[in-house]
Amino acid sequence: MQPLILGSSSPFRAELLRKLNLPFKTVSPNIVETPHQGEIATDLVKRLAEQKAITIAMNHPKALIIGSDQVATLKGQILGKPRNHEAAKAQLHAASGQTVLFLTGLALFNSETQRMQSLVEPFEVTFKNLSDEQIQFYLEIDEPYQCAGSFKSEGFGITLFEKLHGNDPNSLIGLPLIELIALLNNEGIDLLQPNPSS
Description:
Blueprint (H helix, E strand, L loop, with lengths): L3 E4 L3 H8 L6 E2 L14 H17 L6 E11 L2 E3 L5 H11 L3 E12 L4 E13 L4 H11 L18 E6 L3 H4 L3 H10 L12
Parallel strand pairs: 1-2, 1-3
Antiparallel strand pairs: 3-4, 3-5, 5-6, 6-7
């Protein structure tokens, strides 16, 4: 099997990929993630996922490279990473009682054949009606200041939600495994065979 590379510095994405029982290594793509003027969220995450994979391919010419990017949107507006407590509090106030749409761009690039497969996986999260005290309490526990939407669904953030809706709960953490398995299968990797590279 070609070397498999996860183009991400996220420990959560790496933990998800380990579920597939494939050997891989992680490489940080180090790209500029600023949206282009007028770029909608769906186009943004697809472009960045592809760009991450292509950037890593420059130094790994015979690999399968996974790129992924995610944004949260509320009423069509992109929610960035809050970076600090006050911004996180404002984001959670805005999300209270609302449905936030998470869009995860996923790309699989074969740097040997130059084949690019990519898609965008949606996932909806409906928040409970949250009081000031609940928001404050949550932020003190998880400190989700580097997380789009100001929560960690893999942590205590699950307490904020009323319901989740989507095809793959892994996509909420940033790597839609069901879709990734299909993309790998298109490259001849069947994970349900004793030897996935056959």
